[in-house]
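Lab manual, section 2.4: Encoding a predicted structure.

Procedure: take the sequence of the chain (290 residues), apply the prediction step described in section 2.3, and record the output as structure tokens. A sample record is shown.
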Amino acid sequence: MGKKFLKNFHNIKSLASEILLIEERKAELREPRWVANLASLRPSVSNAFIVFGCLAAGAFLSNREWWFATICSVIIAFGLILDHLRESRVQVVFQNRQEIEKEAVKDLVHTVIDTLQGTCDALTAGDKKSRDKALAAARRAILSTVRRSIGPDTGVRVNFFEVVPGSPPKLEASSYGHEGRHNHRSARVFTFKDESFKLALQCNTGRFVEDAYSQELTCPPSYQTFATMPVSSEKFLYGMLTIDSPKKGDITDFEAKDLLNLFASELALTFSSEDSREMALEIGHTSQDE
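Recorded output:
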């Protein structure tokens, strides 16, 4: 009984927060929680204080009830202060986000430059054995960059699925191409029955599912949100880059589509040799071709 009461209480508290507080409340600033909540009340709340105060003050003034009118003036002032606090906090949150995004972009650019230089060095290695070893190291570095650049510090998993020749062909997680959670190498095998594989091979496009639990998937995954992106050139598919997380919201639309596409394109450069093309699948390939 007590647990049920606590659960209902937390649900009501969460609902009240969603109704009364603006989204910027979730931003982390150096301030007590009560200050953040007070400065994040929706405009409708502060406007209610102002309107109620004005109406009540007018009624009390007409009856010459000065003390009550003074109290109503304080209520009006409180509503105006809430407006000022909210606008000031929104501005501070916006500036902080701009600084964080600027630093994140700067770090990302430097990381991409480093991995591209490593890929170029690997491609120009002399003998095949040295080149393969250098390319494998470059791919691991790219996957590590994906993990550091997408989602929170923990929870997100990255896998690279490579082409396994056969009739029909399939995609399996590479032994070196994985980063993220404990035991993070995926055991999944992509076949022509998988929507992600079909989109990659036939349309050369990725896929983003924000909430897998809310969709009627043939094989529900053990994670709630995931994204896939083909590692390909204009003509050939070398594999597929995937990210997933057990928690909805860990992966944003920008990360799933734009950032993942950037890293997949970078990863595709490591497969630009003639040897890699022998294992690749031609874009537009269908199961009927087998």
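Check your result against the sample. Residues 5-10 have pLDDT under 50 and may be disordered.
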